[in-house]
Amino acid sequence: MSQELEGQHRLILIGPQGSGKGTQAELLSVYLQIPTISTGQLCRSEIEHGTELGKKIEQWVRGGELVPDDVITAMLKKRIADYDAQDGFILDGFPRTVAQAEASESWMRPTKVIVLEINDKVAVARMTSRRACTQCRFKTTAEYVAKHGDECPRCFGKIVQRDDDSPEVIQTRLDMYHRVTQPVINFYRDRDECERFNGALSIPLVFMEIAHVL
Hints:
Number of strands: 8
Order of helices and strands: HEHEHHHEHEHEEHEHEH
CATH class: Alpha Beta
Mean pLDDT: 88
CATH architecture: 3-Layer(aba) Sandwich
Low-confidence stretches: 1-5
CATH superfamily: P-loop containing nucleotide triphosphate hydrolases
Strand content: 15-25%
CATH topology: Rossmann fold
Largest sheet: 5 strands, parallel
Number of domains: 1
Helix content: 40-55%
Number of helices: 10
């Protein structure tokens, strides 16, 4: 392994919906000056740009199927080869399955696996409270809307609750997380690079704890 590769932060963030994984990824990206790479965003980008691959991804998603591992891996390898990822990167949404974790060992061994743990009750409460602007995607909470109204303070668009933030949909997604992604944590659990954190704590406290181990 080259010295350049040894100096990289190759972080994997794992956690259920509502654990604050996306928020911590954003904070760590600024703190470490490395990009957050989301496989979900890579897929959405292909769809938005109307590529041939994007059309296939859209068909899989609409049909309720997972995007094949080889497709995800190919997109990810291409992305981490970009210039801005040469000093490291944060993976959000990969590996999603044990098969992906096993296959990635040959080309991307993580320096840290950060696991955010939270129980389903807290996750559902957090996610049903989420609100976002329909235009700029400004994120806030139902409490904020109750106090300040549903006009976005950034772009003056409308703040709403997403359709997929209903308790029933959230629980379905959590059930899939436990079934498909929880085994990935077991795959990394006994390694020195695996660190587990209480995702129910405040955002600043969780960030400080993560930054400490890095």
